[in-house]
């Protein structure tokens, strides 16, 4: 039987022995149950075989004449950071030789962890922190066991050795950028200090080589009400300068440039209403942002999603530094952070636009004196369409040239990289047996919802009767990634499903970014139910199972509690489940802009109306539920169990090298 809500709060203690013991026992109980299911051993063997042959597509960074990659394999689960010397001209388009001898080892992350008795992960979210014309120095950021906290070490990227008495920190939230070879701009929480509401460090320092981090010069303090503060590079073409990004909330941003002398200049001319999914990018002369609200730029009104550039290479007045890179068409959206759709080189700005599932990869170049009034203007110099269901990623750009590495992939197409390097993956399943359709469904309020249906090549009415899974995201303005074996598609766990003749539906629901910022706003905070209505509209025509991760895990959990009659099975991976207490958990305070503040009584009513934890009820026949969840929120799994549903504790099922058995359970 269900207990009062407060009786589950003891499970919020992330590392308490009793909490960890409960999670361990429940995980073992569920794993044991799955071990006795038909085909359990067969599926596990299949997943292990897939994991042994499907090396992950490497991460790449171009830096002058050098190309870096982080390659993960079954032998090196954490990866080998390697470098390759390009031709003397740097502009050859020849494929890089596949012979491993042409790549020189910088750091073996697995080996380094073994030496120190830890499980290190290479942390590259804030870009690869290289310095020098050929990337001679690297600020290596390592997390222990995938934790949010990282530690930093300065590495000679030519030899792979740590610089004696170089820059080095203990664990903390860290973002940093080179100012010159002897100075870093660094925002960190290595020591106690002011924090933002999102539990990120609020202070930024200049750290000089040979001095203790505690003695670094304080240059900036963000308000405690901000969500996140980050220090990042402006590239080698802007020596002695770096940039601070204040994420006031997930749609309001402010920027300041810090110089080597410690001076700080706010870029007040940039409109503050911006998209969280389009992080600031730059060329040698401009920083570029995407607007999340209408604004007046260059004397005219521009719509949401417009890409705007700010000139950092001039002393002109603030109001004359802005220029319009690209204004989207109706229903057109930039793919942004998670879509690999935004990047700058020395003189070009690259971006990807999507309109109702049809994508174009574009590039713009700034032309001084190119406008009617004699000021500069941006000109589109490239516009390349991609096929339905495919996506092009701008993997890396060179700050010393206009070279780029592009990766193209789709639900049915393994990743292919080209220009400076080509490193393709083998197909994990026979895509010729499948067909991908672009369809629509009508939501509760009449809105047409686009969705992709991937199914065996049989007549459409027969495909609709086949077993079918469904997944979506629908939050933060993020477009759902339709890429090969993407973790949000289930990673390798989707392969046995497709091989066995299963189908997959992906609705582009409101709250996501598929039709721009207005599509995101249509399901934010008090309008969140729109997102779930859209998903249900597609689900009502199909016989399905549902899965999702992160916000998609919340979506799956809501489907379980709101419409258990529609689904034959539910997989909810690392979901947010208690919408009344989420701001008190981890980074939850930074998510208030997206979901709303439960301290507001009116907002609390909305949140409780769909909060999975608060909507588990006795006497309801729930579908089989697999909940893979962090130990900092086991309460939803516990409450489902008390209501009679199946569950398992864990975290992020989609890493093929680390969770092969858990993938097989799916």
TrEMBL record:
InterPro entries: AB_hydrolase_fold, Pept_S9A_N, Peptidase_S9_cat, Peptidase_S9A, Prolyl_oligopep/macrocyclase. Residues 7-230 form the Peptidase S9A N-terminal domain. This is Prolyl endopeptidase. Coiled coil: none annotated. Residues 497-636 form the Peptidase S9 prolyl oligopeptidase catalytic domain. It catalyses: Hydrolysis of Pro-|-Xaa >> Ala-|-Xaa in oligopeptides. It is an enzyme of class 3 (hydrolase). GO terms for molecular function: oligopeptidase activity; serine-type endopeptidase activity. Belongs to the peptidase S9A family. One of its GO terms (biological process) is proteolysis. Keywords: Hydrolase, Protease, Serine protease.
